[in-house]
Amino acid sequence: MAEDEHGGELRTANSSDRSVSAGSALLPADGFENPGMAEHHERVTDKDPKKAKNAERVVVLLFWISLAFTLFAVVAYFIWPIDRADITTVRANNFFLGIGIAFGMLTLGIGAVAWAKYLMKDTEMVEARHETRGTPATRQRVAEIFAQADEESGFSRRKLLRNSLIGAVLALPLPGIVMLRDMYNANNEKPVKLLHETKWAEGVRLVRDPSGTPIRASDVTIGSAFHVIPETLIEMKENHEPGFLDAKAKAVVLLMRLPEDRLKEREDRKDWSYHGIVAYSKVCTHVGCPVALYEQQTHHLLCPCHQSQFDVTEHCKVIFGPAGRPLPQLPIAVNEEGYLVAQSDFHEPVGPTFWERRHDYNV
């Protein structure tokens, strides 16, 4: 028996007092009824060291399998690359990459659960707690608890199991790290310059995506919206030219017609529209998601990724959400045949605003 600071007696638990560790440890002197905790039953791995060793081998095997699947995901990224000229290659790349990552995480999780279930100590304890104070004694006790947890889990003692877990956990981020290599290539142009030039140019007709049908001004009615690409992209697609998808991703446009009295156009941009017909980049200025949800009544465009909203009546200015600037406007006109054409390329880079942190192309 030992007295606590209030004068009460505490009972302490030890390994030989099974009834105490099963639910009556550290009880006040006057005691209390057992709340219903069952007597502790030892597991087979507690009774038989051979069974415990076998369980440890299984957990180690699971961790090694997790490591193998993670490395497989890295290798699969190179064995089944994505060919930008053949979109069907995405299927094989995603399938094998996903298999590696998924089973790497699954076997790691199963191994961790099995370790806790069959090898870590599972005795139940109840203790009387007083107000926690940050005294030296408290800190010392915390250190003792951590040391006890380390001993009970076997983290330091079971070196093979511990090292296999560390290896599997450290390898798990590798597929993501490897895939980050595609975000930078020393041979690529600077992002601002790259996103400042698209397939739009003076006289290029606006055509529907994906049919490639040219659009007359009379086809665009008030409240309608067309997904549009430059006609030059259709030729790239038909000729299977490399870089088609990259070019399309930068040039996609949403074409709309509003009542002319609803447009609040700047003086320097009044000739960028045609009788209420306006064209804006579909690439959100937040992180580049496709802005394709058009609200006919409010004339707002909505980005479904992070809910940025743009007001089409005022040059697609940002009215809600994290987008940093308005959507770039494509200047349009009508040719002698009545088809809508571009006056020029965009006058600013399309895509995320962060590319424009500096304008000397040295981002």
UniProtKB/TrEMBL annotation:
Transmembrane segments: 58-80, 95-116
Record membrane topology: Multi-pass membrane protein
Compositionally biased intervals (Polar residues): 12-22
Subcellular location: Cell membrane
Superkingdom of origin: Bacteria
Stretches for region Disordered: 1-49
Gene3D superfamilies assigned to the protein according to its UniProt record, in alphabetical order: Rieske [2Fe-2S] iron-sulphur domain
Domain (Rieske): residue spans on this chain: 250-341
An example molecular function term from Gene Ontology annotations: metal ion binding
Main location: membrane
GO cellular component terms, A-Z: plasma membrane
Residue ranges, compositional bias (Basic and acidic residues): 38-49
Entries under InterPro entries matching the protein: QcrA_N, Rieske_2Fe-2S, Rieske_2Fe-2S_sf, Rieske_Fe-S_prot
Family of the protein in this entry: Belongs to the Rieske iron-sulfur protein family.
Name of protein: Cytochrome bc1 complex Rieske iron-sulfur subunit
